[in-house]
Specification:
The complex is a heterotrimer. Chain A is an all-alpha fold. Chain A is built from 8 helices and 2 strands. Helices cover about 80% and strands about 0% of the residues of chain A. In chain A, strands 1-2 form a two-stranded parallel ribbon. In chain A, helix 2 runs antiparallel to helix 3 (about 60-85) and helix 3 packs antiparallel against helix 5. The longest helix of chain A has about 30 residues, at about 100-130. Chain C has helices at about 1-10, 75-85, 105-110, 125-135, 145-150, 165-180, 195-210, 225-230, and strands spanning about 35-45, 50-60, 65-70, 90-95, 100, 110-115, 185-190, 215-220, 235-240, 240-245. Chain C is globular. In chain C, about 50% of the residues are buried. Classes of the chains: A mainly alpha, B mainly alpha, C alpha/beta.
Amino acid sequence: MLRDALTVLTKDLRIERRSKVTTTQIAPFGVMVLVLFAFGLDELVVRGPGESSANTVSAAAISAGLFWLATLFAALLAVQRSSALEQADGGRDGLRLSGMDPAGIFLGKSAAVFLQLAVLEVLLAIGVVLLFDATLRNPLLLAATTVPATIVLATTGTIYATLTGGQRSRDTLVPLLEFPLVAPILLAASQATRAALDDRSIDGWPWVRLLVVAALAFTALGVLLFDAVLEDL
Amino acid sequence: MNSQIAARVCAVLGAVVLGVVVVLGLFVTGPDVVQGEYVRMIYLHPATAWTAYSGIGVAAFASIAWLRTRKMSWDHLAGAGIEISAVFTFLALVTGSIWGRPTWNSWWQWDPRITSTTLLFFLSIGALTVRRLDGTVEQRARRSAVVVLLAAVNVPIVHFSVDWWRSLHQGRTLARVDRTISGLQLSTMLLSIVGFTLVFSALLILRARTNRWEDEAAQGGLGEAVSMRRSEATGGPAASPHPGTV
Amino acid sequence: MAGLENMVHSSPPVAVAAENRRLNAAGNGSLAPVPVIDFQRVVVLLGRFPALAGLDLQVSQGEIVVIRGANGAGKTTLLKAVSGLVTVAEGSAAVLGVDLRRDRRTVRRSVGLLGHQGFLYDDLTVSENIAFAVRAGGGDSARIGPAMERVGLVGRLRDLRVGACSAGQRRRTSLASMIARNPALWLLDEPHAGLDPDARDLLDTLVREAAAGGTTVLVASHDEARAEALATRVVTVGGGHVTDDRAVTHAP
């Protein structure tokens, strides 16, 4: 299973390196979302370290939420792209025909998406610090938050994108399925990120525990179910 | 025929129980000091939420069973569970909103229950949409099973995260009332849950049967279709070949 | 060239069935060779449409079977069913001794499908695509080089992005992948289409070599004359079932 995962992962990464879609399209998109929101919400935000008050929101509060919102949108793109690679020239059938372990295919493709999102998140973190004057109080907490949360995005997105692979409606279907599923994850991640940035009123670590559980649960589910997901007929 | 009888029994019993609940709820029990007549919602709302979650639970169980056995009757049950869950989730949201109105002074508040239930609603809708995609019945069952299981796993995650979130910000929660009711009010509420569960069972059975009939109606005539197909070779009635790569 | 041929086809094809024997109908343990393909009354549904409607077909090892038939008759579906890509709804279907209705995945590794789709990734080069196919399909990477040579993918061509390749080059890439993987059963769907006459000749030669080495080959083709010359047996498919099945003898 792991060997197959590695095979698929290296294939996807090699394609990415060749086509540079993440770096030239998805990452800029994610950063753009962040910038647009920052621009639109400018009046509300108190710059630098500080607490929320009646009419304003602290930088930590808003930037954490926006960070994850931007990541979510980018994740949808990344996952669709990953699935689209297999739609061309019957790649999906090719994967099935190879006899590779579907769980391995799942892990490989999810890992590729995860790495792409990780790159984006580094950029977003920089963006958040720059745009909102946020200070990164607890980088360890931030890392501990982003890893499991991104795993959830990558795994569930891969499952849904592959499941709806051949359908015409899949561009709208994947968000419909993904949003309610990851909403609690984004909530948890935002809270923990807020704590990591500036907000001393929140303890981030319980949220991290929840995220880790979710990441394990969805990865396990993907490993168990991907055989059924990949089968076409 | 067994299932039909079971469905009828459940429906009748359910109707009787709910009838009792209506009488008790509207006429016998008294209004609440704080909430006035609105407290009567307690005989509706928790039961609808309970039914909604049961629907997902049944669907999840049936989905696992289908994945194991590949028997279509499990898929019919799963489909019924999802549908009922969607409907009752919606009802739960409506009743919850009505109930919360006087306490909140608004039609909507993101209290933990409402938030969790809203997410469940969208998860159900997503599953229903997936079930309606083009394809064979096996494809439908397969896709549905995956989506339902992901949703089911998500339910506890949603529950915990939203509860935590709201406990941090003293939001106005809906059902503090639960702790303080007793006696007749408590019994009536429990009775409503029983009644709704009976109705839920009846609906479940009926819907599963209808699903099966729908499939049979569609599949029926396979023998005929096979003969027509074979006659293509000799230029028979279906002489024009099926379009697409065959 | 001769040396390359030997290297490409000298190792026995990968087969799944560990034993090559089975009990005959009487159950008394006498040996009969297991057919590579054993389809009986097979029905395959696409949606609700019976693409294969009660199809019977037995193919033994080493045969070169050409499948002919009108468009829409079921040729492609038959190949997909044999490869384990689509489910068999009714009937009994076994490939290389494995029951398709129980376990399709085991069959897939031992089968090579060359069809309308090439299973190629546009962003990867020719050699990267073949390497991936071999790695994924569990083949021997030492066979990749000789396979590419055999098929005429030489020099700079190997490092060309498949997206920039011509249809013929793409087809040859897929072919090289299959040769490198060396499955026990080849399924070719209209392999001559889009190839120039030289390439078609090369394909025929490769098929004959493979069959001589123990590989079984099924070819769905419209090219009547070429198919006839190549085959040991011609099967006609119409209306989702077999309407004609005859052996072909070639003058030595």
